[in-house]
Amino acid sequence: MKLNPTFSKLAILAVVSLLLCIVLAQIGGLVHERQARQQEAVQGVEQALAGSQTLLGPLLVRSCKELWKNGQGDAESRSFTLTAAPAQLAVNGGLTPETRYRGLFKVNTYAGKLNLTARWSDAAALTPRGERPGSQVECGDVAVMFSVSDARGLRGAELKRDGQSLAVKPGTTHPVYRNGLHAPLPGLRLDTGLSLSLALDLVGSQRFGVVPAAGSTTVGLQSSWPHPSFGGRFLPADRKVGVSGFEAGWKVTELASNAANQVAAGEKCPDTLDVEFIDPVNPYVMSDRAIKYGLMFIALTFVTVGLTELLTGRRVHPVQYLLVGMALSLFFLLLLSLSEHLPFLMAYLIASSAAAVVLTQYAAAMLGGWLRGTAFGGGIALLYGALYVLLSREQTALVIGAVLLFTVLAAVMTLTRKLDWYRLGATAGE
């Protein structure tokens, strides 16, 4: 029994498509490998400079020890730390972005100059209370502490009490939030108010956050970075984002945040408000997203070539389908390699133009004329334009892709509506 040539060719094209899927998967694996190396570069910069920073404080702290005797008359004790969050906390300053590189890989860091002002109406929360009947509680002097995620990022600190400078020391004396600085406050009366100010020079990587551990917290930040991503538990109450940078302000009260109680309980991850310095056009993320549309590209191109065969009678060999598919697939590899050295848009224009030119001249020979080849190349250019729109419009990518596919299907159905598929198959089988 003689096989139908049409169905035989479809089977061969299915194998060709499978081979191209393997090529796309290998290129996708290369993208993931480069992403992993970028993360290694980020970790390398964080280890050599400082990681993301989260500020906690200033807080008043007091180390205490409770002594008692058990039922057998043996002495026992426990140590604990009391904290007093300020009634009002204000954090203001600027974050200057600084781009650093590890080889080809870019890492976003920043240098911050911040001013923190904290006010307490009293420090009654530092009054010790024993948990055992008849116990004796001994406490040390009160100190003020300030904690950061990575103390290596501290470049300078000036602490003042009612306008008078205090000598700061490394460490916080707190058993949970250890990284930072502190200053003793000997002779502080627990029933009086206190005002402290802290001028801070700080560096960090990628993300900056503040723990709103106060009765009322206000934060105002400015930066020349034009692509902030606001996160944490609280979004800014007001913000302005433009090409020249951003300004953002937060207002958080103890009614909305339990951060002060979380800190008093020693929780390691209290509530925060964050801003992250992101790159909206990450070449590896964009390349990965582009590859996900690769199979659709190949399918649409094969459909176009197949329609040309049906409507013009021009025969196209499966090897030619394979070469066209390889050109489409290698576009993504070219895009990845160029985007590591050039802005993504420029890399995309170069890679897509190169692929369109190669496919135009090849299609002119494959389809029997420069007019058909130019039309084919123009269609490929339109596909690349549509792909860039899909990549740049993340929020509307699904609807744009769905409309594009439906339009292509409608065009195929319109062009083939008068074909007699039974006769076509019978003719091909003769």
TrEMBL record:
Keywords on record: Membrane, Transmembrane, Transmembrane helix
Name of this chain's protein: Inner membrane protein
Tree of life domain: Bacteria
Record's keyword annotation contains Transmembrane: yes
Pfam families named among the record's database cross-references: CreD (PF06123)
Segments crossing the lipid bilayer: 293-312, 319-338, 344-363, 370-391, 397-415
Organism: Roseateles saccharophilus (Pseudomonas saccharophila)
InterPro entries per the UniProt record, alphabetical: Uncharacterised_IM_CreD
